[in-house]
Write a structure and sequence with these properties.
The chain has helices at 8-23, 30-45, 116-119; strands at residues 2-5, 50-63, 69-75, 82-91, 99-104, 112-114, 131-132, 136-138, 145-147, 151-153, 156-162, 175-184, 189-190, 193-194, 203-214, 219-225, 231-242, 253-256, 266-267, 287-288, 292-296, 302-308, 314-316, 320-325, 329-330, 345-346, 353-363. With 364 residues, the chain is mostly beta strands. β5 (99-104) and β6 form a beta hairpin. α1 runs antiparallel to α2 (30-45).
Amino acid sequence: PNFTLSSSSAASDVYKRQVSTQSTGEQTSVGMAQFSLCLGLFGALLGGSLAMSVIGTGRSQATLTLNETSFFEHTMDNAATGYLNHFWAAGSPTVDRAIFRYYIDGEARASIVFSPALACGVGFGDQTAPWGNRWIGKGARSTGWFHNIPIPFHSSIRVTFQLNPIDHLDGGLSKIWTIVRGSVGVPLRLGNLDLPVESPSLRLELQVKEAVVLSPLEFMDMATVGAGKQGTIFLSSLFVNGSSNYNYMEGCFHLYTPPNTAWPGLLLSTGMEDYYDSAFYFDGGGFHFPVSGETHKPGDGTFSGYRLHEMDPLVFQDGVRFQWRNGDVTDPQTGLKCTLHTGGATVGNPGNSTVTSYVWLYTW
Protein backbone atom coordinates (compact mmCIF):
# COMPACT_ATOMS: atom_id res chain seq x y z
CA PRO A 1 0.00 0.00 0.00
CA ASN A 2 1.56 3.26 -1.18
CA PHE A 3 0.10 6.67 -0.55
CA THR A 4 1.29 10.24 -0.24
CA LEU A 5 0.71 12.63 2.60
CA SER A 6 0.24 16.03 1.01
CA SER A 7 0.95 19.47 2.44
CA SER A 8 -1.71 21.44 4.30
CA SER A 9 -2.44 23.66 1.27
CA ALA A 10 -2.88 20.62 -0.95
CA ALA A 11 -5.15 19.10 1.68
CA SER A 12 -7.27 22.24 1.63
CA ASP A 13 -7.58 21.97 -2.16
CA VAL A 14 -8.62 18.33 -1.85
CA TYR A 15 -11.30 19.25 0.66
CA LYS A 16 -12.60 22.11 -1.51
CA ARG A 17 -12.82 19.83 -4.57
CA GLN A 18 -14.72 17.19 -2.61
CA VAL A 19 -17.24 19.70 -1.25
CA SER A 20 -17.59 21.32 -4.70
CA THR A 21 -18.33 17.93 -6.22
CA GLN A 22 -21.04 17.33 -3.65
CA SER A 23 -22.63 20.72 -4.41
CA THR A 24 -23.02 19.77 -8.08
CA GLY A 25 -25.07 16.76 -7.11
CA GLU A 26 -22.51 13.98 -7.56
CA GLN A 27 -22.63 11.23 -4.93
CA THR A 28 -19.24 11.73 -3.31
CA SER A 29 -18.82 10.85 0.35
CA VAL A 30 -18.28 13.57 2.90
CA GLY A 31 -16.33 10.97 4.82
CA MET A 32 -13.84 10.71 1.97
CA ALA A 33 -13.35 14.46 2.03
CA GLN A 34 -12.73 14.36 5.76
CA PHE A 35 -10.35 11.43 5.35
CA SER A 36 -8.35 13.31 2.69
CA LEU A 37 -8.22 16.36 4.92
CA CYS A 38 -6.96 14.31 7.87
CA LEU A 39 -4.22 12.76 5.74
CA GLY A 40 -3.20 16.20 4.52
CA LEU A 41 -3.09 17.67 8.00
CA PHE A 42 -1.07 14.68 9.22
CA GLY A 43 1.34 15.25 6.37
CA ALA A 44 1.64 18.90 7.35
CA LEU A 45 2.50 17.87 10.91
CA LEU A 46 5.27 15.68 9.53
CA GLY A 47 6.63 18.68 7.68
CA GLY A 48 5.72 18.10 4.06
CA SER A 49 5.17 15.38 1.49
CA LEU A 50 6.14 11.82 2.39
CA ALA A 51 5.69 8.66 0.32
CA MET A 52 4.87 5.96 2.84
CA SER A 53 4.57 2.19 2.49
CA VAL A 54 4.55 -1.01 4.52
CA ILE A 55 7.09 -3.72 3.73
CA GLY A 56 7.67 -7.22 5.07
CA THR A 57 6.66 -10.86 4.80
CA GLY A 58 5.86 -14.02 6.74
CA ARG A 59 7.17 -17.56 6.35
CA SER A 60 5.01 -20.43 7.64
CA GLN A 61 6.16 -23.97 8.46
CA ALA A 62 9.61 -23.54 6.95
CA THR A 63 12.43 -25.92 7.85
CA LEU A 64 15.47 -24.75 9.76
CA THR A 65 18.65 -26.27 8.35
CA LEU A 66 22.36 -25.59 8.49
CA ASN A 67 21.97 -23.84 5.14
CA GLU A 68 21.35 -20.10 5.43
CA THR A 69 17.91 -19.34 3.96
CA SER A 70 16.85 -15.94 2.62
CA PHE A 71 13.20 -15.14 3.29
CA PHE A 72 12.88 -11.39 2.78
CA GLU A 73 14.53 -8.85 0.49
CA HIS A 74 13.65 -5.27 -0.34
CA THR A 75 15.36 -2.73 -2.61
CA MET A 76 14.49 0.95 -2.41
CA ASP A 77 13.21 2.66 -5.54
CA ASN A 78 13.45 6.22 -4.21
CA ALA A 79 15.51 8.39 -1.90
CA ALA A 80 13.51 7.60 1.24
CA THR A 81 14.90 5.64 4.18
CA GLY A 82 13.25 2.45 5.32
CA TYR A 83 13.46 0.31 8.42
CA LEU A 84 12.29 -3.06 9.63
CA ASN A 85 10.83 -2.68 13.10
CA HIS A 86 8.93 -5.88 13.77
CA PHE A 87 10.36 -9.37 14.19
CA TRP A 88 8.57 -12.50 15.43
CA ALA A 89 9.58 -16.16 15.46
CA ALA A 90 8.08 -19.39 16.77
CA GLY A 91 8.25 -23.13 16.15
CA SER A 92 10.53 -25.90 17.35
CA PRO A 93 12.60 -25.29 20.50
CA THR A 94 15.63 -24.79 18.27
CA VAL A 95 14.07 -21.46 17.14
CA ASP A 96 15.28 -19.98 20.46
CA ARG A 97 18.83 -20.38 19.23
CA ALA A 98 18.32 -19.94 15.45
CA ILE A 99 20.58 -17.42 13.75
CA PHE A 100 18.95 -14.46 12.00
CA ARG A 101 21.00 -12.15 9.82
CA TYR A 102 20.12 -8.71 8.42
CA TYR A 103 22.23 -7.62 5.45
CA ILE A 104 22.06 -3.83 5.19
CA ASP A 105 22.63 -1.88 1.95
CA GLY A 106 24.28 -4.70 0.03
CA GLU A 107 26.88 -5.63 2.64
CA ALA A 108 28.58 -9.01 2.11
CA ARG A 109 28.74 -9.76 5.82
CA ALA A 110 25.62 -9.16 7.87
CA SER A 111 26.01 -6.39 10.43
CA ILE A 112 22.98 -7.48 12.49
CA VAL A 113 23.19 -11.11 13.66
CA PHE A 114 21.14 -12.44 16.58
CA SER A 115 19.30 -15.36 18.12
CA PRO A 116 15.69 -14.64 19.15
CA ALA A 117 15.95 -15.38 22.87
CA LEU A 118 19.15 -13.38 23.36
CA ALA A 119 17.73 -10.52 21.28
CA CYS A 120 14.95 -10.29 23.87
CA GLY A 121 17.39 -10.30 26.78
CA VAL A 122 16.70 -13.89 27.86
CA GLY A 123 19.44 -16.44 28.43
CA PHE A 124 19.98 -19.98 29.64
CA GLY A 125 16.88 -21.39 27.96
CA ASP A 126 14.46 -19.57 30.29
CA GLN A 127 10.87 -20.05 29.07
CA THR A 128 9.02 -17.69 31.42
CA ALA A 129 5.98 -16.39 29.51
CA PRO A 130 3.97 -14.49 28.55
CA TRP A 131 5.59 -11.12 29.01
CA GLY A 132 6.44 -8.12 26.90
CA ASN A 133 6.82 -4.38 26.52
CA ARG A 134 6.65 -2.17 23.45
CA TRP A 135 10.09 -3.33 22.26
CA ILE A 136 10.69 -6.97 23.20
CA GLY A 137 8.84 -9.94 24.61
CA LYS A 138 7.72 -13.56 24.53
CA GLY A 139 4.10 -14.49 23.90
CA ALA A 140 4.04 -18.28 24.20
CA ARG A 141 5.29 -21.02 26.52
CA SER A 142 7.58 -22.31 23.78
CA THR A 143 9.30 -19.79 21.48
CA GLY A 144 6.99 -16.92 20.39
CA TRP A 145 9.71 -14.25 20.58
CA PHE A 146 9.23 -10.74 19.21
CA HIS A 147 11.11 -7.48 19.05
CA ASN A 148 10.28 -4.09 17.55
CA ILE A 149 13.80 -2.70 17.35
CA PRO A 150 14.00 -0.44 14.25
CA ILE A 151 16.70 -1.57 11.81
CA PRO A 152 17.20 1.22 9.23
CA PHE A 153 18.47 0.81 5.67
CA HIS A 154 18.95 3.18 2.74
CA SER A 155 19.25 1.12 -0.45
CA SER A 156 18.39 -2.50 0.38
CA ILE A 157 17.89 -5.08 3.09
CA ARG A 158 17.95 -8.88 3.14
CA VAL A 159 16.96 -11.17 6.03
CA THR A 160 17.95 -14.82 6.47
CA PHE A 161 17.57 -17.59 9.03
CA GLN A 162 19.69 -20.63 9.81
CA LEU A 163 19.77 -23.52 12.26
CA ASN A 164 22.34 -22.90 14.96
CA PRO A 165 25.26 -25.30 14.49
CA ILE A 166 24.93 -26.41 18.12
CA ASP A 167 21.64 -28.02 17.06
CA HIS A 168 23.16 -29.89 14.11
CA LEU A 169 21.90 -33.25 15.40
CA ASP A 170 18.33 -32.09 14.98
CA GLY A 171 18.09 -34.05 11.72
CA GLY A 172 16.16 -31.42 9.76
CA LEU A 173 13.09 -31.70 11.97
CA SER A 174 13.08 -28.08 13.14
CA LYS A 175 10.14 -26.00 11.92
CA ILE A 176 9.94 -22.24 12.01
CA TRP A 177 7.24 -19.64 11.59
CA THR A 178 8.58 -16.10 11.29
CA ILE A 179 7.53 -12.56 10.36
CA VAL A 180 9.43 -9.36 9.58
CA ARG A 181 7.73 -6.05 8.86
CA GLY A 182 8.60 -2.39 8.60
CA SER A 183 8.01 0.94 6.91
CA VAL A 184 9.39 3.27 4.27
CA GLY A 185 9.15 7.06 4.56
CA VAL A 186 7.93 7.08 8.18
CA PRO A 187 9.67 9.18 10.88
CA LEU A 188 11.61 7.22 13.48
CA ARG A 189 11.40 7.98 17.18
CA LEU A 190 12.90 6.09 20.11
CA GLY A 191 11.11 7.21 23.26
CA ASN A 192 12.40 10.73 23.94
CA LEU A 193 14.78 10.82 20.98
CA ASP A 194 14.10 11.51 17.30
CA LEU A 195 16.55 9.66 15.08
CA PRO A 196 17.83 11.47 11.97
CA VAL A 197 16.18 9.04 9.58
CA GLU A 198 17.04 11.32 6.64
CA SER A 199 20.77 10.99 7.32
CA PRO A 200 22.53 8.56 4.94
CA SER A 201 24.92 7.64 7.76
CA LEU A 202 22.22 6.44 10.19
CA ARG A 203 22.87 2.81 11.13
CA LEU A 204 21.96 0.33 13.82
CA GLU A 205 24.88 -1.62 15.26
CA LEU A 206 24.49 -4.79 17.29
CA GLN A 207 27.73 -5.33 19.16
CA VAL A 208 27.99 -8.84 20.59
CA LYS A 209 30.54 -10.22 23.01
CA GLU A 210 30.17 -13.98 23.33
CA ALA A 211 31.34 -16.29 26.13
CA VAL A 212 34.04 -13.93 27.44
CA VAL A 213 35.71 -15.38 30.54
CA LEU A 214 36.38 -12.65 33.10
CA SER A 215 38.62 -12.98 36.12
CA PRO A 216 37.48 -11.41 39.40
CA LEU A 217 37.44 -7.59 39.12
CA GLU A 218 38.23 -7.69 35.40
CA PHE A 219 36.61 -5.06 33.17
CA MET A 220 34.71 -5.79 29.96
CA ASP A 221 33.94 -3.19 27.28
CA MET A 222 30.47 -4.24 26.13
CA ALA A 223 30.42 -1.72 23.27
CA THR A 224 32.80 0.75 21.67
CA VAL A 225 32.26 3.39 18.98
CA GLY A 226 35.25 5.33 17.72
CA ALA A 227 35.66 9.07 18.19
CA GLY A 228 33.96 11.26 15.59
CA LYS A 229 30.60 9.46 15.56
CA GLN A 230 27.34 10.55 17.15
CA GLY A 231 24.68 8.19 18.35
CA THR A 232 22.80 6.58 21.23
CA ILE A 233 22.90 3.28 23.09
CA PHE A 234 19.37 1.91 22.93
CA LEU A 235 19.29 -1.58 24.47
CA SER A 236 21.81 -3.65 26.39
CA SER A 237 21.45 -7.21 27.59
CA LEU A 238 23.81 -9.18 29.80
CA PHE A 239 24.10 -12.94 30.28
CA VAL A 240 26.40 -14.07 33.11
CA ASN A 241 27.38 -17.51 34.37
CA GLY A 242 29.17 -16.96 37.68
CA SER A 243 31.45 -19.80 38.68
CA SER A 244 30.89 -19.57 42.42
CA ASN A 245 28.27 -17.02 43.55
CA TYR A 246 26.49 -13.78 42.67
CA ASN A 247 29.15 -11.43 44.04
CA TYR A 248 29.87 -10.38 40.44
CA MET A 249 26.72 -8.27 40.84
CA GLU A 250 28.77 -5.78 42.84
CA GLY A 251 30.26 -4.68 39.52
CA CYS A 252 29.28 -1.25 38.20
CA PHE A 253 28.55 0.06 34.70
CA HIS A 254 30.56 2.98 33.29
CA LEU A 255 30.06 5.17 30.23
CA TYR A 256 33.00 6.95 28.59
CA THR A 257 32.36 9.56 25.91
CA PRO A 258 34.58 10.17 24.08
CA PRO A 259 35.97 6.63 24.49
CA ASN A 260 39.30 7.79 25.90
CA THR A 261 37.68 9.69 28.78
CA ALA A 262 39.55 9.10 32.02
CA TRP A 263 38.32 6.78 34.75
CA PRO A 264 35.63 6.54 36.07
CA GLY A 265 33.79 8.20 33.19
CA LEU A 266 30.07 8.51 33.90
CA LEU A 267 29.05 6.07 36.63
CA LEU A 268 25.78 4.51 35.41
CA SER A 269 25.14 2.35 38.44
CA THR A 270 26.25 1.62 42.02
CA GLY A 271 26.24 -2.13 41.39
CA MET A 272 24.85 -4.39 38.69
CA GLU A 273 21.25 -4.86 39.78
CA ASP A 274 20.42 -1.16 40.17
CA TYR A 275 21.25 -0.62 36.50
CA TYR A 276 18.19 -2.83 35.96
CA ASP A 277 16.10 -0.83 38.47
CA SER A 278 16.31 -3.47 41.20
CA ALA A 279 18.33 -3.85 44.42
CA PHE A 280 20.01 -6.34 46.74
CA TYR A 281 20.86 -8.94 44.11
CA PHE A 282 17.29 -8.86 42.71
CA ASP A 283 15.83 -10.14 45.98
CA GLY A 284 12.30 -9.28 44.82
CA GLY A 285 12.40 -11.97 42.12
CA GLY A 286 12.17 -11.81 38.36
CA PHE A 287 10.38 -9.00 36.51
CA HIS A 288 9.79 -7.54 33.05
CA PHE A 289 9.41 -3.77 33.39
CA PRO A 290 8.83 -1.40 30.45
CA VAL A 291 12.51 -0.39 30.37
CA SER A 292 14.30 -3.10 32.37
CA GLY A 293 14.03 -6.72 33.34
CA GLU A 294 15.60 -9.57 35.28
CA THR A 295 14.73 -12.44 32.98
CA HIS A 296 16.68 -15.27 34.62
CA LYS A 297 18.19 -15.82 38.07
CA PRO A 298 17.40 -19.28 39.50
CA GLY A 299 20.04 -19.24 42.25
CA ASP A 300 22.80 -21.23 40.54
CA GLY A 301 25.00 -18.24 39.70
CA THR A 302 23.42 -17.53 36.29
CA PHE A 303 21.69 -14.30 35.32
CA SER A 304 20.20 -12.56 32.31
CA GLY A 305 18.56 -9.18 32.00
CA TYR A 306 17.82 -6.26 29.69
CA ARG A 307 17.91 -2.46 29.96
CA LEU A 308 16.24 -0.15 27.43
CA HIS A 309 17.32 3.49 27.17
CA GLU A 310 14.26 4.98 25.50
CA MET A 311 13.41 7.22 28.47
CA ASP A 312 17.02 8.04 29.42
CA PRO A 313 18.95 8.01 26.12
CA LEU A 314 22.66 7.27 26.45
CA VAL A 315 23.58 9.75 23.73
CA PHE A 316 27.11 10.53 22.61
CA GLN A 317 28.62 13.17 20.32
CA ASP A 318 32.16 11.90 19.82
CA GLY A 319 32.22 8.12 20.20
CA VAL A 320 31.55 6.03 23.30
CA ARG A 321 32.73 3.12 25.43
CA PHE A 322 30.28 1.14 27.60
CA GLN A 323 31.83 -0.98 30.35
CA TRP A 324 30.97 -3.46 33.12
CA ARG A 325 33.14 -5.00 35.83
CA ASN A 326 33.06 -8.54 37.23
CA GLY A 327 32.66 -7.58 40.89
CA ASP A 328 33.99 -4.40 42.46
CA VAL A 329 35.96 -2.81 45.30
CA THR A 330 35.44 -0.29 48.08
CA ASP A 331 37.76 2.65 48.67
CA PRO A 332 38.94 2.28 52.30
CA GLN A 333 39.51 6.06 52.49
CA THR A 334 35.98 7.09 51.55
CA GLY A 335 33.94 3.93 52.03
CA LEU A 336 32.58 4.37 48.48
CA LYS A 337 32.32 1.56 45.95
CA CYS A 338 32.97 1.70 42.18
CA THR A 339 35.39 4.63 42.42
CA LEU A 340 38.74 2.80 42.32
CA HIS A 341 40.19 1.28 39.17
CA THR A 342 42.86 -0.63 41.07
CA GLY A 343 43.42 -1.48 44.71
CA GLY A 344 40.73 -1.20 47.36
CA ALA A 345 38.85 -3.89 49.27
CA THR A 346 37.06 -6.51 47.16
CA VAL A 347 33.37 -6.78 48.00
CA GLY A 348 32.53 -10.41 48.70
CA ASN A 349 34.34 -13.17 46.86
CA PRO A 350 33.57 -12.96 43.13
CA GLY A 351 34.92 -15.76 40.97
CA ASN A 352 35.46 -16.16 37.25
CA SER A 353 32.41 -15.33 35.15
CA THR A 354 31.55 -16.33 31.59
CA VAL A 355 29.79 -13.36 30.01
CA THR A 356 27.84 -12.72 26.81
CA SER A 357 26.43 -9.30 25.99
CA TYR A 358 24.23 -7.72 23.33
CA VAL A 359 24.35 -3.94 22.85
CA TRP A 360 22.05 -2.33 20.26
CA LEU A 361 23.15 1.20 19.39
CA TYR A 362 22.54 3.75 16.65
CA THR A 363 25.25 5.85 15.02
CA TRP A 364 25.20 8.67 12.49
